[in-house]
Design goal:
The protein is built from eleven helices and nine strands.
Length: about 300
């Protein structure tokens, strides 16, 4: 057995060279990898915070039938992977926790998770981001950025979500309110929050009570993981965008946050929904259990 040299001239690799005259020698060491290499590099360099699985999904959308393992090898050969130790630095609580629901959501606009998260700019002080996130589709509603984190900010975040819903679906959420056998309104959306002060205030509860389409559920005390989907959304915002940029003031914060939200909803593939885009799942044009990669149809020739 002898060792071959990497085709791109980066040095020797621990791979046995193909025998002379073999099919592997005739067609090259990794034809699939070489065909997709340029697409892998393009997506990896355009989105440095994405891992190999998301890059693989984007290559599939480009028409390359390439596996995640192949993309991982390609990224390693191109020197575009972080050290393995970085991947081991995970939170101790890795298991998902669900919010306290009477019925598991089976579609969008049934459960919205709301929270506030602070971010310190380089020269413009500390600001708070408030926003609703759809539990089922993971869709991010518009964010509200403010120097405070009180009941007014929480209410504004819900108002932005209600306005976005009306714009997307062509009617207000209140038009979807049903009634039970005793003609009592049945709320459409459950707002899930933690037990922070803004969500325990009288003003916030009065706002919920004034909207028959909404009801409010707080998670158990000292159980922040029950609002995990909302926390992961804010974590993605920070680690995939804000921590990679120089955020000088609130104007930079709003600009980068809004740009990321659009990319997050319309472009970024998500493993939890079969690598589909959030907006497509939220609007019902994609199945969260079925990948939506373009596939060529092979018809019989005879």
């Amino acid at each position: 057995m002898r060792w071959s040299v990497c085709p791109n001239g980066r040095g020797a690799v621990s791979r046995p060279a193909p025998e002379q005259g073999s099919r592997l020698s005739e067609r090259g060491l990794a034809p699939v990898r070489e065909k997709a290499r340029e697409a892998v590099r393009r997506h990896a360099l355009a989105h440095p915070a994405w891992g190999h699985r998301k890059v693989s999904a984007m290559c599939r959308y480009d028409g390359h039938r390439v596996s995640q393992a192949t993309v991982l090898r390609c990224l390693r050969e191109e020197g575009l992977l972080l050290p393995a130790a970085y991947q081991r630095e995970r939170r101790r609580l890795a298991a998902r926790r669900k919010a306290v629901f009477a019925v598991e959501p089976n579609g969008p606009n049934q459960v919205w998770q709301l929270d506030l998260r602070e971010f310190e700019t380089a020269a413009g002080g500390t600001w708070r981001i408030a926003g609703c996130r759809d539990y089922w589709s993971k869709y991010e509603y518009p964010w509200h950025v403010s120097p405070t984190a009180n009941q007014h900010d929480a209410i504004t975040a819900i108002e932005l979500a209600l306005a976005d819903y009306e714009q997307r679906f062509g009617h207000p959420l209140s038009a979807t309110v049903g009634r039970d056998a005793e003609s009592v309104p049945v709320p459409t959306v459950t707002i899930v929050t933690d037990n922070g002060g803004p969500f325990r205030s009288f003003r916030f509860e009065a706002f919920i009570a004034a909207h028959p389409e909404l009801r409010h559920v707080r998670t158990r005390v000292r159980s922040p993981g029950q609002n995990g989907s909302r926390e992961r959304g804010f974590g993605s915002l920070k680690y995939e965008r804000l921590f990679l940029e120089e955020i000088d003031d609130v104007l930079d914060l709003v600009e980068h946050a809004d740009a990321y939200r659009v990319e997050y909803n319309t472009l970024r593939p998500h493993e939890a929904i079969s690598w589909n885009q959030l907006l497509a799942v939220h609007l019902g044009t994609a199945d969260p259990l079925t990948p939506n990669f373009p596939e060529t149809e092979n018809l019989p020739t005879t």
